Amino acid sequence: MEAEKTVSIKLAPELLTKAEALASKEGSAVDQWIVSLVSNHVARQGDWERLLGRTRAIGKEMGIESEADVERILGEFRTEIRA
Known about the structure:
- By secondary structure, the protein is mainly alpha-helical.
- It is 73% helix and 0% strand.
- It is elongated.
């Protein structure tokens, strides 16, 4: 694993106060709390990219090429449900 690197950030005083309060509420130091936020965001981004990849593949299989196709399919589905 690569060695950790230090970064510096500037926060507005009111944002820092809120961050300190939230970190304290979770029993964490602000720097650890920020690392956790960044790690979680990166993980969610990866999850989102995987989800988009799967849904694009399904859409392609269904012949969906545009938002108009999605709207058409939703309209057909809603019509079927009401019938």
